[in-house]
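As noted in the main text, all predictions were made from sequence alone. Below is one such record, for Zn-dependent exopeptidase.
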Amino acid sequence: MVVVLDTIESEKLRLEADYIEELPFLDTHVRSNLNNGNSSSARRSRRLSRKTQWVLLTAVLLLTIGTINLITVKKRRRVPGGGERLRFSIDSANQGRRLGFLDTILDSTTSEELFVSIPSTKSAISASRKYASRPHIAGSEEDLDDARSILELFQTQFGIPVPTQEPVFSAGSPQSQKAIKDIPFLLTPQAWIDTYYPVMNMPLDRSVEVLGEDNSPVWAADLTEDGDPGDPVAARFRDFIPTFHGLSMDGEVEGQLVYANYGRKEDYDTLEAAGADLTGKIVIVRYGGIFRGLKVKGAQERGAVGVLIYSDLRDDGAVTAENGYETYPNGPARNPDSVQRGSVQFISMYPGDPTTPGYPAYENVTRSEALNKPSIPSLPISWNNAKRLLEEIGDASENRLLSGKSSARKIRLVNHNDEKVTPIWNTMAVIPGHIKDEVVIVGNHRDAWVLGGADPISGTVSLHEIIRGFGALLRSGWRPMRTILFASWDAEEYGLVGSTEWGEDFEDWIRENVVAYLNTDVSSAGSRYSVSASPSLSNIIVKTAKDLAHPTEEGKSLWDARTDSGPFGGAFSPDFEVQHEVGQKIMTSSRTGVHPLGSGSDYTVFLQRIGIASTDQGFEGTPNDAPYHYHSIYDSQKWQEVYADPGFHRHVAIAKSLGLLALRMSDAVVVPLNTTQYALELDDYLDVVEHAASDAETEFTVLRKSITNLQQASYALDAEKKVAEERLLELLKGMHDTYMRERSGRRHKNFWFGVRNVLRGLLGISPIYPPRRIESADVDSILYDWFNLASPTLEKEEGRHLPRHTHVIPPPDSEREAMAQQFPVREVIEALKRVRRINKMLTSFERGFISEGGIKDREWYRHLGVAPGKWLGYGATTFPALTEALTIENNSTLAAYEAKRLQELIDQLTTSLHI
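Prediction:
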């Protein structure tokens, strides 16, 4: 009985306090009198004349109004930009707005406009100058400093209290596991750092020499970039990170030099057809066409003992010294002493730590033999060094032909490096949503080969602005419908290591919870907007890009920037023209303008191993842009500000695009994944296969029929999700209208209750209170409960989790039950369950292409719809197992097997879409 009375008294005091705090016209003295209405002084009977009472009341009201006006003016003067921020708050209050759950569902305009207003060029430039001011290669102290800086950014923007002990966890530890697996039970944002332990290398000594008849060197390459003082930051760090290949083989080799163009499979095949024998040779190839590690792999498989890779000026389009342009930093043309560092991992075999394929690189993990890195040494070199070496083969008219001709003299290549287990740091943050088992991930990598002005700092800057935008939303009272996880990945440059290890660590959790993965790597390296994605994401991507303004031209949208070109003119070399036309054809082959993902960035583990719909976007160079000094010291802040993105408008455009996409993915009632668009594009994928199999015996009629059946099932799902969404929104709007009517009716009564209680307080009489009104927070709380009651995951696991996490579905109380009676509880929960079932079908669709058997010879890749080409690395191959059975294996029996395997997956997908 005592407990019951205490509870009643406590609730009464709470209601009194809540009510007093809501009265807008009480000054501190009056508020104190009201709060102490039960004290001995307040209980004293005061008898004043009616005239005196009204005089006092009028004076108090006038004084309070004047005080409020004075405070408002002072706030506007004191806070930079405060007038605008205050106006937003007042306008929102006047319009009855609160960025709550129900408001966001019914109208996302307010939250979207607020988010888009935050990313700014001033903030972006400041962040870029901070992060691109010195080298920060993966595993370095500078890299760890940046990881902590991003952690601090998360804490500041998301209102996360700084813990007494720094939240840096060793991967695999209870703290690291708990940080992810407790996400469904979080109520407030959290941030932390996970530490993984992959094998990586750093250079010791390197050399490239031409040997004379007595085997002594007659010429030696200068392997250090020149560091022109015209770019002072680049000059300062000219040799801070030596020019080398990540995960390259340690060794010393000698051999004659052979030119092999881009080092593609077709280039090596051409050399073999011409009778060239690469055994014992050192191959020199130019960057471009395919991932650099596959150039080394191709040479290694044909008996070569070493590889040199250089940047060829023929691939720079119009902007060359030959066309009259000054070289960087004096002009836009490529600096001929620049060198492209980079990993030579066999990325199309498997990414991540070479010694832990398929499982995470914990500190004391048992490691296996590294099978995805070269067995022959390699080095990157500049154009100036390459030009001198090519002279050993012949004159300029013949030394870059696929003739198979060898140099008369031998070349010595030395590459010694220190390979060891090295810690790396992924910085993570989470904003918990109302729906706990649907998560949107936004990611970008943080490490760079040197300064990384474009790669990855342009992307990191865009992420920085996205974080600021979501911080502003949180401060406005907004909370996402779905949970949003942010990731600043490490060691991407060595082979997508940080994201891959995390994905392998939490594969089951990702499969069950993640809706989509949204990535940016290089957000600004040129003038043309480019986006790749799973076909199911293409429609929402296109809509979002069309809703945003072009970064530099009025009257156009961001989507229009897909056809932009750089400001420089001039002629192209003939072979560049051919390569450019091939690239353009690939870029425009998609029905929507969004092309499929291959590999080369952190979306790889999510899409191609686990089956999560993914995207990557940014601005890339064109033949008329200043050549991008990829992975060079000249990928710098100055190059970025002068040539890539003067004013940083493109950085901000990607921040708005990717952030708005994340916001729409998280706050849409029905997850905006379009399975029909995906199913239609499968027809295009099969067209490519049939073209490749024109002379083969394989028949694809059954597979084509399965694709048609999938399209029909997806059409039916489209109809169902439209009806389900409309029904839920109708019910939620009814709830909103009920709340607004109740609130409007109370507002008039509450004012007069307030006036009476001011007077009662002055007279020492106990105040009186109206019944507690339903607040927007109460509606949000009810909906929060209902969304989780409708969750298939919570229904399935409530016996295991809910007793331990009682806050997930708070116990009902009489007040909440009374409020809930005003709303159509059963109808809303049923409508929610209907939507949740549909969302589960949509988010599981991509996973329907995952085969546990994987792709032949590279089983780490499991997606039978798309994968990086076996001999491409960067580029996508659709229906990869089937396509490569025909184009690489030339095996019609294997092709028939792969067609059958693909058809069975598609049939299962069709079944999964049935309502």
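The CA atoms of residues 126 and 461 lie 9 Å apart. Residues 1-48, 65-97, 794-812 have pLDDT under 50 and may be disordered. These features were considered when defining construct boundaries for the mutagenesis experiments described in Section 2.9.
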